[in-house]
Recover the amino acids of this structure.
């Protein structure tokens, strides 16, 4: 019997396996996709996430990010540099490859397949033909395991969706730019010397080009054809009853998700994966729910506040002007998310 079976080989699942291996536990990851795995993602890793990757021995390189800048169509802007550390703009495929290599180097077995039905008893869990002491569910935003375990809660609001593609242009900034409109946001992340990722988030269901047309100044900066196809994700908000069910612990997006608005998905995936493994290694899985709540509290509160402001066109138009007039408040929010 192995120590930890991980369902899902994305960043959260691989980070959980790496943490487990470093703690002297035998870990197996079950993942149906072939590495490297791409997905719709803003691709900006906050400074805390970069530090967490390096602490795990994961070798990542990309474009340094110095802070966050908000802009709107009327010319208002607010920006704040990160304090002490830099973030990283990195292609999702490069991040996945680095985590994948590190897991293999530590002896983690990564098997092709899907985790379907889960059987549990007092001291073990069995899934995908493997018996383990614990199962970590890291199978993504719309986690099938979470649904099977009865941990989903119904959505309360209209869902938001994200679309992303890349453009072969030289980055014009070393900040993550968030362009605001009455109907959504566009996120610009430098990810290479001649490549930027542009992700749009909105409650409106329409094509990428139609979304981008809502940001004419940004669209004018994106010369030439797109470098990658459009990838999408959503609805983004996922409400979860709890993060544990018997000997199963949920981490990353599977553990619940508010929105991509503040760009902390990778950092939170790494943090919750580490917390879950530490609780298991200490023999105190019951502590994980509280640890998850503590680690994600600031993110959830700030993201929900911004979502509330962006929910109506009238208040969405005020976000950037208000941030510009209150630079200390905006800087404090950016620092809280580091």
């Amino acid at each position: 019997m192995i120590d930890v079976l991980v369902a899902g080989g994305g960043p959260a699942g691989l980070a959980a396996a790496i943490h487990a291996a470093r703690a002297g536990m035998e870990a197996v990851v079950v993942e149906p996709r072939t590495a490297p795995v791409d997905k719709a993602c803003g691709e900006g890793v906050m400074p805390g996430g970069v530090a967490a990757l390096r602490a795990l021995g994961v070798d990542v390189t990309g474009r340094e990010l110095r802070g966050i800048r908000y802009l709107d169509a009327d010319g208002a802007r607010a920006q704040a540099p990160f304090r002490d550390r830099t973030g990283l703009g990195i292609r999702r495929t490069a991040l996945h490859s680095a985590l994948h290599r590190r897991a293999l180097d530590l002896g983690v077995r990564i098997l092709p397949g899907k985790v379907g039905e889960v059987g549990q008893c007092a001291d073990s869990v069995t899934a995908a033909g493997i018996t383990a002491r614990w199962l970590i569910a890291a199978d993504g935003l719309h986690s099938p395991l979470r649904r099977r375990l009865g941990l989903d809660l119904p959505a309360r609001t209209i869902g938001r969706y994200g679309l992303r593609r890349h453009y072969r242009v030289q980055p014009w900034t070393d900040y993550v730019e968030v362009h605001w409109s009455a109907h959504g946001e566009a996120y610009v992340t430098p990810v290479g010397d001649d490549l930027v990722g542009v992700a749009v988030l909105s409650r409106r269901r329409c094509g990428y080009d139609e979304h981008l047309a809502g940001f004419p100044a940004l669209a004018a900066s994106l010369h030439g054809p797109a470098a990658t196809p459009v990838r999408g994700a959503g609805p983004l908000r996922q409400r979860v009853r709890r993060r544990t069910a018997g000997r199963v612990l949920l981490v990353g997006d599977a553990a619940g998700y508010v929105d991509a608005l503040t760009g902390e998905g990778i950092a939170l995936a790494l943090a919750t994966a580490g917390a879950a493994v530490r609780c298991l290694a200490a023999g105190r899985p019951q502590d994980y729910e509280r640890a998850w709540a503590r680690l994600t509290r600031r993110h959830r509160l700030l993201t929900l506040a911004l979502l509330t402001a962006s929910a109506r066109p009238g208040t969405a138009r005020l976000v950037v002007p208000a941030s510009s007039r209150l630079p200390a408040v905006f800087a404090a929010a950016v620092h809280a998310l580091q």
